[in-house]
Write a structure and sequence with these properties.
By secondary structure, the protein is mainly β. It has two domains: 114 residues, Immunoglobulins (Immunoglobulin-like, Sandwich); 302 residues, Methylamine Dehydrogenase, Chain H. Helix content is 4%, strand content 50%. It contains one helix and 37 strands. Strands 16, 17, 18, 19 and 20 form a five-stranded antiparallel sheet that branches. A four-stranded antiparallel sheet has the order 3-2-1-29, with no helix packed on it. A hairpin with a 4-residue loop joins strand 23 and strand 24. The longest helix is centred in the N-terminal third of the chain and has 17 residues.
Length: 430
């Protein structure tokens, strides 16, 4: 009887999970800023064509798309301001004053705050997304000139590169306090972090750096520099965290260098651009994790797609200005993963020695865009848990002999966003 009840429960969960409706918000786009054009270009990543030009009062620099892909925020350095872009209308609907010469902008994983790096005043303006006002200003040590930012996946801490101080700072998001200083030389700029939050990578841009440096988030110590062959600027990481992508701005021909994150060694060099030097700068991974888009800042004045699976470079998409061109790129953020999922035997079925209970638990992703979690056993969907419910799921498996031995069993969890996208992570069996 118990077996039939479990079977009926599993079938019910499969049916109900398949009936969940998702919001229809387009995520097949990237946004590109430009050094000389007063506007942001929107590229359709399905057709690889320009689908909209969004005017701004002056050229934008940094840009980030909020979770849910309904709004984006871009910095306007000459106006000491950030603008909000309504992605339904492709128009600027708000202008928010910030510090001096804002450059890079980033949105926390929960989608509640925009952090704006102000290069001219060496501080950070924190914008509350609900009210679209600056609610806090965080002063960085000395004349730091911040140039890069990345949040930890849980949103608790954030890493900031300080170009003039030759350091990367770790800050607590809640307090704004610096909790670690990691010396990095020369010229730390672009930052990214692995999906598991264990390693931050920093690009050393000018003065012959030619390297990307890994930082262990467990110890906040820098590892051995990785020679990437040129002056690296911006970084992106694959959805599975296995491959780092680096734009080398001064290489001729301009290229994107891959790095194996398991060994921290340089891999494939991918030339980009028809006219050289193409000066690749900004780089972003699409929402579905299949394609990279790279901004070519000089001569080509275009954006080029790269297929992640094959490394094939697609046709250039022209958008640039008359002197310098495309600068930075933003895509809708990749779906966040469930954190620290584990499975353990919680009960033996005394009435039937052929099955036992397995309980799977995990931590929330800290993002309002996640609506539910799907649980898979050996690749088969066995249940769905809503994000508002307790994050635990119990299932039953066959045993080997008279004990609960998890032989030939594997579990995984997918976080499901309001856009219907998923990010799957394996469950650790204790």
């Amino acid at each position: 009887m118990r077996k039939y009840s479990v079977l009926l429960l599993s079938i019910y969960l499969m049916i109900t999970s398949s009936c969940t409706m998702a919001m229809s918000v387009p995520t097949n786009f990237v946004l590109v800023t430009d050094d000389t054009i007063s506007g942001v270009t929107r590229i359709n990543t399905t057709t690889n064509t320009v689908e909209a030009f969004i005017p701004t009062l002056a050229p934008a620099f940094g840009i980030a798309v909020a979770p849910g892909a309904m709004f984006a925020y871009a910095s306007i350095g000459t106006l000491d301001a950030v603008v909000r872009i309504d992605l339904a209308t492709n128009m600027v609907d708000l202008t928010i004053p910030v510090g001096l010469t804002p450059n890079i902008v980033a949105i926390n994983p929960a989608g509640t705050q925009v952090w704006v790096l102000n290069a001219g005043s060496s501080d950070i303006s924190v914008i509350d997304i609900a009210s679209n006002t600056v609610v806090r200003t965080i002063t960085l040590p000395g004349n730091s000139e911040p140039g890069g930012i990345v949040f930890t996946p849980d949103g608790i801490n954030v890493y900031i590169s300080a170009r003039l101080n030759l350091a990367v700072y770790e800050l607590n998001v809640a307090t704004g306090n610096v909790i670690a200083t990691i010396p990095i030389s020369p010229d730390p700029v672009g930052l990214t972090i692995t999906p598991d939050g264990k390693t931050v990578y920093v690009a050393t841009f000018m003065f012959g750096g030619h390297t990307v440096i890994p930082i262990s988030t467990a110890t906040n110590t820098a590892g051995a520099p990785i020679d990437v062959g040129g002056e690296p600027d911006q970084l992106a990481i694959s959805a599975d965290g296995k491959t780092l992508y680096v734009t080398n701005t001064t290489s001729n021909p301009g290229n994107v260098q891959t790095v194996d994150t398991a060994t921290n060694t340089a891999g494939t060099t991918i030339p980009v651009g028809i006219t050289q030097p193409s000066q690749p700068v900004g780089i972003a991974l699409t929402f579905d994790g299949t394609t990279l888009y790279v901004a070519l800042n000089m001569d080509d004045f275009s954006v080029v797609p790269i297929d992640v699976a094959t490394g094939a470079v697609g046709a250039e998409i022209f958008i640039g200005g008359a002197i310098n061109g495309p600068r930075l790129i933003a895509a809708p953020p990749f779906p966040p993963q469930a954190q620290n999922p584990t499975a353990m035997v919680t009960s033996d079925n005394l009435l039937d020695v052929a099955i036992c209970g397995i309980t799977i638990q995990w931590l929330p992703v800290g993002s309002s865009q996640v609506t539910s979690y799907q649980i898979f056993q050996n690749g088969i969907l066995i249940g769905t848990v809503q994000a508002t419910d307790p994050l635990t799921f119990t299932t039953f498996v066959s045993v080997c002999g008279s004990f609960c031995v998890l032989t030939n069993q594997s579990f995984s969890i997918s976080s499901v966003t309001s856009n219907g996208a998923t990010a799957q992570v394996p469950v650790v069996i204790l």
